[in-house]
Amino acid sequence: MRRNGLLALGFHAVFLAFMLGPLAVVALVAFTPEGYLSLPIHGPSLRWFRAILDYPDFIASFWTSVELGLASASLAAVLVVPAALGIGRYSFAGRGAFLALMMSPLMVPAVVLGVGLLRFLSLFGLQGTFVGLVLCHAMIVGPYVLRMLLAVVAGVDRNIEKAAASLGASALVIFRRVTFPMLAAGLVGGWVLAFVASFDELTVTIFVSSPQVTPLPIRLFSHIAETTDPLAASVSAVIMGVSTVLLILLDRCYGIDRLFSGGGR
Amino acid sequence: MRAAPYWLSVPAFLLYGVLMAVPLAMTCLLSLDRFSATEGIVPAYSLANYAAVLADPYYQQIYLRTLWIALVTTVASLLIGTPEAWIISRLQPRWRGICLLAVLGPLLISVVVRTLGWTILLAREGLLNQALLGVGLVSRPVELLYTQTGIVIALVHVLVPFMVIAVWTALQRLDPAGEMAALSLGASKAAVFFRIVLPQIVPGVLSGSLIVFSLAASAFATPALIGGRRLKVAATAIYDEYLFTLDWPTGAALAILLLAGVLAIVALWGRFLERRDRMRG
Fold first, then answer.
1. Which ipTM did the prediction report?
2. What's the whole-model pTM score?
3. Is the dihedral of CA B235, B237, B242, B244 positive or negative?
C-alpha cells in the first residue's frame, strides 16, 4: 500500500485549511449577533439571516437567479442535445471548428464576452432584459452540457437503435424511447452543472443585467464593493447552502472529478 | 444521411454564431471607432485607440500588472496543486473521495462568496493579521487587502482546483507498477516522485497551468473586490471604461488586446506542448 508520509499529510492539512478556511469564515461570520463583521463569540444568532427578509432586493435577486438558471440550463440542453449527437456520431466537414465554437465560452475571457454581448443586445433592445440574460447564459453554460453529453454519446451502443429500426420503429419513436433514455444520465448531470454555472455567473452578467433584472451574484458583488457587513456573509451562506446541496448530488451521481476534467471556468 | 449532422447542428450553431461570433466581430469593429464626449461613438475605422492605449503608461502598467499577477498565480498554483493532487491520489479510497470533494467543491460556489472570505481574512483587523500578531511573526499589521499579494492569494484559492483536477486526471492514467518497481529497487520516496511520477504527469501539469493562467489573466471579481478601485487589472479597467467613462471604443480596444494576449499565449503554449510530444516520439 502506498502511504503518505507525515510531511505529506501535514501539507495536505494546510492545503485543506487554505481551501476551506475562507468559506468557513464566511459561514461563521454570518451567525454573528453583532452589527459588524466578527466571529460569533457571544453565541450564534440568526439576526443577519432574518435581516435578509428586510431586503426585498436580495429576495428578488435570488428568485431571478433561480429562474435564470432553470431557463438557461433548459434552453442549453434543448439546443445542445442534437449538436452532441451530431458531433459525437458523425464526422463531417467543419466538425472540429463547430466543436471549438461551442467550447469557446470556456476560452474567451468572460469580460470580452460581456462587452460584446452588451453592445449586441443593446442594438435589439434586449440589454438588461430577462430574455437577453437567458440567451447569454444558455450560451455560456452550453459547454458544460456538451461535455457531459459527449461522454455519454460515445458509450451508447448504436446496435440497440438499429434493432428498434428493424422492428419497425419510426425515427421519432427511436429517439424518444431508445436514444433519449440512454442519454438521460449525462443530460441530467450536464443540466445541473449548467444550472450551477448560471447561478454563479458574474463577469458576463454584470454587463448585460439592469437594475430591473439583477441576478444574485451581481447584487452581492455591488453590495460587497460598497460595504462588507454581516448581511453579505449571511446571503453568501445561503448561496453556499444551495451550491453544497447540488454539489453533493452531483458527486453522488457522477463523481466530482469527472465534472471538471478538461478545464472550464 | 449525409446531411444529418448539419441539421442536428443548426440550433446550437445559431445560438453560438449569433451570440459568440457576432458580438466578438462587433467588438473588433467598435474598437476602430472614435469616442467623442459630445457626439458619443463616431465611426472612424482607424487603429488610433490601439495606438493610444499601447502608448499610455497607465494602460501599460495595467497590462504588465495583469500579466505578473497571472504568472505568479500560475506558478503558485502549480507548486501547491501538483503535490496536493499526488497526496490525494495516495489516500485511502474513503478519504480520497471526501478530500477531492473538499478541494474541487469550491469551484461550484460563487467566486464572489469565495472572495468575500478573503476580504474578511485579509483585512487590516482581519483574522490573518490577528494570528500573525498573536504568534509574534510581525509587529505591525501587514497590508494585504488592496495589494497585489492579496489578489494573488485569493486568485490561487479560486483557481488552484483546476490545477489539482488536471494533475489528478493525469495521475489516474499512471501505472502504479512503475512506482512499485522503483521502490523495490531501493529508490527513496522523493526519488520516486521526482524521477518516476513527475515526468509522467507533466502534460497534466502543463494543461492545468494553461487553464489557471488564462483564467487568472481575465479574472474580474477577485481583483475588483480585493484590489479595490485603484489597483486595476485588464478586466476591471475594461469594466470601468464601459460603465463609468462610457468610452466604449477604448474599452473595446482594451478587450481585444486582452483577448489577443490570452489567445497568443494559449497558442504558443499549445505549440510548445506539441513540440514536446513529438520530440518524445
1. 0.92
2. 0.92
3. positive
